[in-house]
Amino acid sequence: MSQWLAVALALLSAVCLAVGTQKQGSAVADRTHERLTPRALMALLGNHRWLLGLGLLGLGTALNVAALGLATVTVVQPIGVVALVITTLLHARHRRLRINRRTWAAIGLCTAGGAVFVTCAVAATDPAHGISAWAEHTAVVMLVVLICVLGVAAALFRHGLGGTFYVVAAGILYGFVAVLVRLTITRIQGSAGTPLDDVNWLAIGAAVVAAALGGWFVQTAFAAGPPDLVIAGLTVIDPMVGVLLGLLVLGEAGPGFSVLTGVLMALAGGVAIVGVAVLSQCHPEVLARRAELADRDRRAPSRPGP
């Protein structure tokens, strides 16, 4: 029963995240052009559409946390792929775009690849497996290193990084955050004393910083591309990172895990990632922006020779 309730909460979360993403993405795109600055972000704090999106994202996150308290990451996180279809339809209607066949094919690849990956992961993981303190600390250290690397890269190369970098980086960070949230909830539920006696505060601190940095990456990605591309990257990369972290670091691999399962997961993950790559190249809004830039370059006066 708790599994089905978790699925219902995850579906509601996906709807909130989809609508919130579309609202915020359109608000950011209307206020910025390809690059988000701190000043532009401060201006967005007074934008009602952006604030509505923020509230929906907060509600979606809360519902997702509640779902993680009832089921494992491998069950909850992949349901978020529903948000991809919803966001695509909402954004196309908002921008009055006609979704081309390649975009639908890319969405199909993301959905099918993610579904197969998760099906294999559910069969390969042991949800009853206890997580050792060493494994949890390893995950926290990995996240701290990741925050430092991605933060420094974004600071040093911010003018040369495209929206794909920010989408992938946010997806990886959110995958770690989902795992640490699940571990924290498990510790609270299994505590013999007060609920906070066994909480790993370093894990919570790292998760908060990662969520904040991932949030900035998402807002930056909104300025560089359509919101359905952002949600595609997040709903594909986030659960994959969570599952791989569970299998390789936390030791959640069960008796159902085999070489064949690993190969199928790798292939399915590759298909989903190809879907994200195709979406980043063939989305009608991406094509429109590319045509606009090409037209601007043609109209720009040529510089006189030496």
TrEMBL record:
Membrane topology label: Multi-pass membrane protein
Cross-referenced InterPro entries: Mg_trans_NIPA (IPR008521)
Entry protein name: DMT family transporter
The UniProt record lists the keyword Transmembrane helix: yes
Lineage: Bacteria, Bacillati, Actinomycetota, Actinomycetes, Micrococcales
Signal peptide: none
Keyword Transmembrane helix applies: yes
Keyword terms of this UniProt record: Membrane, Transmembrane, Transmembrane helix
Pfam (any one): Mg_trans_NIPA
Annotated TM spans: 65-92, 104-125, 137-157, 164-181, 201-222, 229-251, 257-280
NCBIfam families attached to this UniProt entry: DMT_1 (NF038012)
Annotated source species: Kocuria oceani
Intracellular or extracellular location(s): Membrane
